[in-house]
Structure formats: C-alpha cells, structure tokens
Amino acid sequence: MRRGLGLGALGLAALAAAAFFVTGATPIDDSPLAGRASDPAKGETIFIASGCASCHAAPDAKDDAKLILAGGQRFESDFGTFIAPNISPHPDAGIGSWTLGEFASAVKKGVSPEGQHYYPAFPYGSYLHMDDQDVVDLWAYWQTLPADATPSQPHEVGFPFNIRRSVGVWKLLYLDDTWVVQTADTPELERGRYLVEALAHCGECHTPRDALGGMNRANWLGGAPNPTGRGTIPSLRPADLTWEPTEIAYYLETGFTPDFDSAGGHMVAVIENFAKLPASDRQAVAAYLKALP
Amino acid sequence: MKKHLTFAVAFAALACGTAAYAQSDFSAQLKARQGQFRIMAINLGIIGDMAQGKSEYNAEAAQAAADTLVAVSMIQQAPMWPAGSDNMAIEGTRAQPNIWEQNDDFLAKWGDFGTAAKAIQAAAAGGVEGLGPVMGQVGGACKACHDTYRAPAN
Predict the structure, then answer these.
(1) Given CA atoms B110, B111, B116, B121 in this order, what sign does their dihedral have?
(2) What's the pLDDT at A250?
(3) Where in chain A are the domains?
(4) Which residues of A touch B37 (CB under 8 A)?
(5) What's the pLDDT at B13?
(6) Are A143 and A166 in contact (CB under 8 A)?
(7) Coil, helix or strand at residue B150
(8) Domains, chain B, ranges and CATH?
C-alpha cells in the first residue's frame, strides 16, 4: 500500500504537469434540466437511496437530525483526510445560494460553482449516471431540508493532492459514463443496476481500487481492504456471495445475514437507508447482484 | 558474580517474556465473547425464521429462544473484554480499540440489547404477528454496536 502510494504520488505529479491544459473544470450543460416539473416526494427517495445524509449529516447525528446536512464527517484515504462540507440550504455556510445547474454540476460532474474539481471522495463518479429528472426532484426535496450555520472545514490533504487541478487528471483516467454491466434486459435488472452502480454507489466501497484510487472495474464489486482500519469489505460477486436473493433483500432491510449475524461498519448506514425504500428496490438490487457476469 | 547476575537477568527476562505472552493471547476471553454472540445469533435465528415464515410458528420454541437472549444479556461483560484484546493489538478478533476508549457508550449499547431482548421475551409467545417489530428493535441494537465497535471480517 505504501509503495503504491509512492508511485501514485509521483505518477500523479508527472501527469498533472503534462495534462495541466486539458484538465479544466467545465460545468454541466444545464439546458436539459430547465423547465421541468419537480416532485419533492420522488426526490426524497433519490436522497435516501443515494445516501447523501450518510456522509453530510453531522458525525453523530441520529434519526431526524440526519436531515441537517451540516457536514463534519471525516473520510480517511491514502491521499489524506477529507471532511464532508455543509450542504444544507444555509446561504453562507451551506449551498443555499446555488442554482439547480450548479447543484447538477457538483453532483454529476464533480465541478464547483467556482469552476474547480471536487475530490472523488464525493462519489460523483457513480452519480454521473443519475437521471436528469431525478436530479431535478432531488433538488426540489433538498429545498425542504433545514438550514444549518456550521462552517465547512478544510480537508487535510498534502501535496500534490491538495492541487484540485490534479483531480482533472484523475477524472480523465477514471470517469466513465458507461454501465459496468452492459445488459440489463428486464425492468428489475435495470432498476437494480441504477441503484447499485449510480445512486447507492455500492462499488465505491466494494470494488478494489488501484494506486491512484480509481475503481478497478474489471473486478467490479470484488471486495476491497477496509480503508479505515482492519478487515476486508466483502466481495458481492455471485461466486462469493452465495446468499439467496430473498436473503440479500432481507439483509438490506434488517442487517441480518442468513445465519443472523448483524451488519456492522459503514454498511449499517446503507441498510438504514435501504430499509426505507420499497421492497421492490431491495429485490432489484438482489437480482442485479445475482445476475453479475 | 558477574556471570551469575547476567544469568539472573536473562532468566528474569525470559520469565517476563512468558508472562507477557500468556497475557496477550486472551484466547479464552475471545472464545467466551465470540461464543456469546453466536448463542445470540442462533436463538435470534429461531425467532427470525418464524417471523419470515421460513419455519412454522411455535410459541414454546420462540419463548425458549427469547428467554435465552435475555439470559445472555445478563452475562457480566467486563471479564471477557480485558484491555489489550482489541484487533490492533492481537489477531483473532474484530473488536475495535474504541471499545476501551468509549467504554461507557459500549456498555450502554449492550444495555440497549438487553432492553430489546426483554421486548422479544414479552412478545414471543403472543403470536407470529408480534415478532416482526421486536426483531426490528433487536436488529437495531445489534447494528448500532457493530456499526461503531466491530471491524469487518478479514
């Protein structure tokens, strides 16, 4: 891991120098978003499935306090520690003064209103698949959330990763708007793919990463070292996860494995979210996992 | 004299070494606490399978399983969690060091499991419909502790 980081730092610095001119951050074309009707109730489902609150709520927030997107949670990585910002509708501390287009650029392209790149600790590499209508509905739901005045904290990352421009290189290498699983020939598989690959970003934890922190799509959901300590985030590939589809759906609802162990770690937040989604969504995720090639 | 002293020091070091080894193994404590969790999982499984309709509801079996959960919740915990038996210090455990750093919270979460076990005990013999909600409560107690204090498996 150390060695990988060394090579990664050098490689990234060299690439950053070479590619400086092609790595500018351009906002999204927001014309497809304009003039659409919005449905905040649908947006709530997108919000829950996407786990925005799991990262942006205050570190020990419980239940309804999770809707206050005050930020402050810390995410350790090989590149430093990222601290989730305040994204509540507060006009100064949060993102209350943003437009829909700016919001969509952040979520789907990782580009800030100031034209800078966000770090991929914000999983826009998965959200880039998000439907335009879903972004509009999510934005409408977000308006209903409480504002909070807690200031965002700076990330704790060193050179060269503190140069946001270098993230442009990362994006060139890793952002990929094609689906990992190309064929999803039933509505259920399509829904499962949308939940796993886009909204719920299961791959961000369950897929191994290379030295530069990009997901290794060839080993999609194949399991990965736990980034915050001991242990391994398990593989979800059919050869490894041999549970029945109903057992996978039950786990996503209750946290109980088939032998009634109970989930732990970062998976708990995912389960708390999935417990609030319709049963058909949990079944769709199970069907998708079972159909992985 | 010098030679003797060296010998004595070496001997003392050896003795210390053995003592340290015996102490940092903790295999009995690991077996005990991991076994306690397995007893919980097995008994919860009896009730959970009934709640899901995987097995037929049987009031007596459900009650026995629930009583067992309550019994486990009354086992005193401290002797099974000696300092230094965390997953950064030794192999064979998924217990994180923060158990000892925030021990009051850890024990409060164990207490929440006890409360949930009593709720199952009260509901177990009252029909299959009552099992779902109490399973949810106990599941919440398990997850809340594993969320903070247990690392993923290797």
Answers:
(1) positive
(2) 97
(3) 23-174, 187-290
(4) 261
(5) 41
(6) no
(7) strand
(8) 26-149 (1.20.120.10)
* Three-state secondary structure of chain A: CHHHHHHHHHHHHHHHHHCHHHCCCCCCCCHHHCCCCCCHHHHHHHHHHHCHHHHHCCCCCCHHHHHCCCCCCEEEECCEEEECCCCCCCCCCCCCCCCHHHHHHHHHHCECCCCCECCCCCCHHHHCCCCHHHHHHHHHHHCCCCCCCCCCCCCEECCCCCCHHHHHHHHHHHCCCCCCCCCCCCHHHHHHHHHHHHHCCHHHHHCCECCCCCECHHHCCCCEECCCCCCEECCCCCCCCCCCHHHHHHHHHHCECCCCCECCCCHHHHHHHHCCCCHHHHHHHHHHHHCCC
pTM, to two decimals: 0.92
Whether A137 and A40 have beta carbons less than 8 Å apart is answered as yes
Interface predicted TM-score of the whole assembly (ipTM), two decimals: 0.86
Per-block mean pLDDT, blocks of 10 residues, chain B (154 long)? 43 42 77 98 98 96 98 97 96 96 97 98 97 95 97 93
Question: Does the beta carbon of B48 lie under 8 angstroms from any beta carbon of chain A?
Answer: yes
Chain B residues whose beta carbon lies within 8 Å of the beta carbon of residue A261: 37, 41
Taking every pair of Cα atoms in chain A, the longest distance, rounded to a whole number of angstroms, is: 54
Q: Cβ separation of B147 and A261 shorter than 8 Å?
A: no
Of residues A175, A158, A159, the one with CA closest to residue A16: A159
pLDDT tens digit at each of 293 positions of chain A? 333 344 455 555 555 555 555 678 899 998 899 999 999 999 999 999 999 999 999 998 988 999 999 999 999 888 899 999 999 999 999 999 999 999 999 999 999 999 999 999 999 999 999 999 999 999 999 999 999 999 999 999 988 888 898 899 899 999 999 999 999 999 999 999 999 999 999 999 999 999 888 999 999 999 999 887 789 999 999 999 999 999 999 999 999 999 999 999 999 999 999 999 999 999 999 999 999 99
Interface probe, candidates A226, A230, A240, A244, chain B, greatest B C-beta count within 10 A: A230
**Contact in structure between A233 and A205 (CB atoms under 8 Å):** yes
| Residue of chain A whose alpha carbon sits nearest to that of B46 | A260
Facing A232 at nearest CB: one of B42, B146, B154: B154
Say whether residue A62 is in contact with chain B using an 8 A CB cutoff.
Answer: no
> Would you put residue B92 in left (φ > 0), alpha (ψ -120 to 50) or beta?
left
